[in-house]
């Protein structure tokens, strides 16, 4: 391992979604590409919004996706603890240092004072920011506040000037510090605010690179100022562009602001999810099929990540997933599909038969949600669906049915070869080809207009069951 150290620092307020998984994944790929360390830090200072349930979901999704962390709250590491709620003593020390060294001051403004100030700024056409009112309070006034037991917050002093960074994704970015008011680093109840906690942790944990969403770009100057004031060297920053839905609008539930644990529970292959997410900004993945994390890590280059907004397309995920499913060993696939195929009697089949069914299903489905419908065709024949009902009412069906019955009865074993003979017989006797030939055969033996390949249906069901199903139509 070299000295590259990155962190994924989610606030456990909900499950992982497309945006924060992309952040986790790019951090992981960057670390692995550089033989560095990937650290998981839980930013749970906002006790009201954070929950252990959300935290567990994040752990479990990352683990299922193969994004193993080198240090974290559950496995520890040299900079333990890795949960912000357990690090308050460290933040208190940092706040004290900043106060003592003149980088921060106590602010006694009430909510009402701040609101009044905000309104004044807006009325005069200026963007609201803290005026710095408590920076140089007379000693007597401070004593008065103290006597009144008013608990102050702590603000960081922002001096005028311009701060420039060279962002790993966005290039040169300048921030006018006059636009930034003195900001809070500790609330009046003593709790550290985000800017202080994250900088103190990044310094302590020796983070070299911060890779995160563009929504954090405006926090960067504040974090750099705090890091410098604490005597540290700020990490390199890389801000990833926003993710839009395929319609170009902000990612919404419909356009793909998907909860990753739900995707995993709905039978999506982890490798399909990580491949599709890797494409959100990085041009190193073709999207033609799934790519393992290790393969992607070998090629990952943050310099090749675009700063233009990117689009999450659920159809692309489905496409990669269909390919991933086809490449997956049956046993692994059964484990993934089991929770989705509710009601399918897995226990009734021998492993050999089950593997055959699953192998047939994996060839025919595009989306895991289709697996149950396809697999069920091997265990029962429901009432025909409307499209196959139409086929079954067509003129050709009687003839197809008669030839099919006769031809299937001739073979004790149905396999690729005998299935082909059966189809040929029906075709030459009826003159039907293509869809006109296959649709009635499918409707007669499954009652469905789509499903697993017919050759699989015939070979897995076997002669007697096929004949029984055809009889059902005749009777
Ligand atoms: N806890 C922050 C979030 O979930 C992460 C901030 C950061 O990466 O610096 O958005």
Report what the structure shows.
- This protein has 475 residues and is mainly alpha-helical.
- The chain has four domains: 5-84 and 244-311, HUPs (Rossmann fold), CATH 3.40.50.620; 87-240, 3-Layer(aba) Sandwich (Rossmann fold), CATH 3.40.50.620; 328-378; 386-474, Arc Repressor Mutant, subunit A, CATH 1.10.10.350.
- 46% of the residues lie in helices and 10% in strands.
- The protein is built from 19 helices and eleven strands.
- The protein has helices spanning 18-33, 52-65, 88-100, 111-123, 139-147, 194-204, 220-229, 260-265, 270-278, 293-299, 314-327, 330-337, 351-364, 371-376, 386-392, 397-409, 416-430, 434-446, 454-474, and strands at 5-8, 37-40, 104-107, 153-156, 162-167, 171-176, 183-186, 209-213, 236-240, 243-245, 310-312.
- It has a three-stranded antiparallel sheet with strand order 3-4-7. It has a two-stranded parallel sheet with strand order 1-2.
- Helix 15 packs across helix 18 (434-446) and helix 16 packs across helix 18 (434-446).
- The protein starts with a strand and ends with a helix.
- Glutamic acid binds at residues 9-11, 43, 198, 212, 216.
Question: Can you give keywords for this protein?
Answer:
475 residues, mainly alpha, Rossmann fold, three-stranded antiparallel sheet, two-stranded parallel ribbon, 11 strands, elongated, binds glutamic acid
């Amino acid at each position: 391992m070299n000295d590259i150290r990155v962190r994924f620092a989610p606030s456990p307020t909900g499950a992982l979604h497309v945006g924060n998984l992309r952040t986790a994944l790019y951090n992981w790929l960057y670390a692995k590409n550089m033989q560095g360390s990937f650290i998981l830090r839980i930013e749970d200072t906002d006790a009201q919004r954070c929950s252990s349930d959300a935290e567990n979901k994040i752990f479990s999704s990352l683990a299922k996706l193969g994004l193993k962390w080198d240090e974290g709250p559950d496995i520890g590491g040299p900079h333990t603890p890795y949960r912000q709620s357990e690090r308050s003593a460290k933040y208190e020390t940092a706040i004290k240092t900043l106060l003592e060294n003149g980088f921060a001051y106590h602010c006694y403004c009430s909510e009402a004072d701040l609101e009044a100030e905000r309104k004044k700024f807006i009325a005069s056409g200026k963007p609201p920011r803290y005026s710095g009112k408590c920076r140089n309070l007379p000693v007597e006034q401070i004593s008065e506040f103290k006597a009144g037991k008013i608990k102050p917050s702590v603000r960081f002093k922002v001096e005028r000037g311009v701060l420039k960074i060279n962002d790993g994704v966005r290039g040169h970015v300048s921030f006018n510090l006059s636009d930034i008011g003195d900001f809070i680093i500790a609330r009046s109840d003593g709790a550290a605010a985000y800017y202080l906690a994250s900088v103190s942790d990044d310094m302590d944990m020796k983070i070299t690179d911060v890779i995160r969403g563009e929504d954090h770009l405006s926090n960067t100057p504040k974090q750099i100022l705090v890091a410098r004031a604490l005597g540290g060297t700020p990490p390199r920053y890389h801000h990833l562009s926003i993710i839009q839905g395929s319609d170009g609008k902000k990612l919404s539930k419909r356009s793909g602001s998907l909860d990753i644990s739900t995707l995993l529970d709905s039978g999506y292959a982890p490798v399909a999810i990580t491949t599709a997410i890797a494409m959100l900004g990085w041009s190193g993945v073709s999207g033609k099929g799934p790519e393992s994390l290790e393969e992607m890590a070998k090629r990952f280059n943050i310099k090749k990540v675009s700063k233009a907004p990117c689009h999450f397309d659920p159809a692309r995920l489905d496409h990669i997933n269909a390919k991933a499913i086809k490449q997956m060993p049956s046993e692994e696939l059964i484990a993934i599909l089991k929770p989705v195929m509710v009601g399918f009697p897995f226990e009734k089949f021998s492993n050999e038969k089950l593997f055959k069914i699953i192998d047939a299903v994996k060839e025919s489905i595009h989306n895991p949600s289709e697996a149950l419908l396809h697999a069920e065709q091997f265990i029962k024949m429901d009432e025909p669906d409307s499209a196959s009902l139409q086929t079954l009412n067509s003129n050709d069906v009687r003839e197809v049915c008669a030839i099919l019955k006769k031809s299937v009865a001739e073979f004790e074993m149905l396999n690729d070869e005998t299935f082909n003979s059966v189809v040929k017989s029906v075709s030459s006797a009826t003159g039907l080809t293509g869809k006109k030939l296959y649709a009635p055969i499918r409707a007669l033996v499954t009652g469905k207009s789509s499903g697993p390949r017919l050759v699989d249906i015939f070979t897995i069901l076997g002669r007697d069951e096929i004949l029984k199903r055809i009889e059902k139509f005749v009777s």
